[in-house]
Design goal:
single chain, 294 residues, alpha+beta, 7-stranded antiparallel β-sheet, 5-stranded antiparallel β-sheet, 4 helices
């Protein structure tokens, strides 16, 4: 009798994991992992919808709950379905848990025709390199449709002025070395020093704006890492201005969990760090899938 009860309890403990793997919305990217010697395209499973929240699959424990030996994915780009693919799980064993989010990938089954979109503008650069092809979003369920209808837009001079104060607060002081690489001096930047790298607007008028200080040669000659003020910074502009982060590139938007709202997936790169961020619930919630290299 005791053995029977134990077996039943063990079964109950396993049920949520199996149900989660089969029914949850899983979001990932089809990409060529950077800093990987063997190259080739893989699927990196990033996030899964658990209850009302998206959780990161950046640990082995989280991955086991949602990844299965074979998975089917829909490939999406700019609100449209580009195709589909199947993956197999090669498994993953490591002595160093910190390498899990960096190296954990799923393999496309050979023989499938996979879409490729060139990385125009040398975007999505990482700690090691810049990929030739841009990452594409894949989902195990959900919708390719973007209910918020994020589309390219142009930032007005008035709106640029609105963001400038938030930019100065987020970027901080900038330095450059006009004479001696070991003698940095303050760079007094103004509104005219700001370069807008991208702007998209949704159907209610909110804008996602990415900007940076316009590069000058002397900013790259200082000894040591370049100041973060020279990096690109992304903001959400609505009734107020919200800072989203540094080193972000928008991968895409879509209703990845089928709840009628758009989520936004970003690539993020910084010092010894790459990965992805997912903004959901009207961009009020954020989930991270990040890794380092040493």
């Amino acid at each position: 009798m005791t053995r029977l009860i134990f077996s039943f309890l063990l079964f109950l403990a396993l049920v949520p994991s199996k149900l989660g793997a089969g029914s949850a919305s899983v979001l990932g990217v089809l990409e060529t992992p950077q800093c990987k010697e063997e190259g080739g395209v893989h699927v990196r499973a990033l996030f899964a919808k658990s209850g009302k929240n998206w959780i990161s699959l950046s640990t082995d424990e989280a991955g086991r709950n949602f990844l299965t030996a074979k998975m089917e994915w829909t490939i999406i780009y700019e609100g449209k379905k580009l195709g589909s693919l199947e993956t197999t799980d090669p498994g993953f064993i490591t002595e160093y848990p910190w390498t899990y989010p960096r190296d954990r990938v799923l393999n496309p089954i050979p023989g499938q025709s996979l879409p490729v979109i060139k990385n125009e503008g040398q975007r999505f650069h990482g700690w090691c390199s810049t990929p030739e092809d841009r990452p594409l979003i894949v989902i195990s369920s959900g919708s390719a449709i973007d209910p918020s209808k994020w589309t390219p837009s142009t930032l007005s001079v008035k709106d640029k002025e609105r963001i400038f104060g938030a930019f100065k607060k987020a970027a901080g002081h900038a330095f450059f070395c006009p004479k001696d690489l070991e003698a940095p001096v303050p760079f007094r930047y103004t509104l005219k020093s700001i370069e807008v790298l991208g702007c998209v607007k949704d159907k209610v008028g909110r804008q996602l704006v990415t900007m940076r200080l316009r590069p000058v040669k002397e900013s790259e000659t200082c000894d040591g890492p370049i100041d973060t003020a020279w990096d690109q910074h992304t903001f959400l502009l609505s009734d107020s201005t919200t800072y989203l982060g540094m080193g972000l590139e928008l991968v895409g938007a879509g209703d990845f969990d089928g709840d009628g709202q758009s989520e936004l997936l970003f690539w993020q790169s910084g010092y010894n760090e790459d990965g992805y961020l997912l903004f959901s619930s009207g961009l009020k919630q954020k989930a991270k899938y990040l890794w380092g290299y040493h």
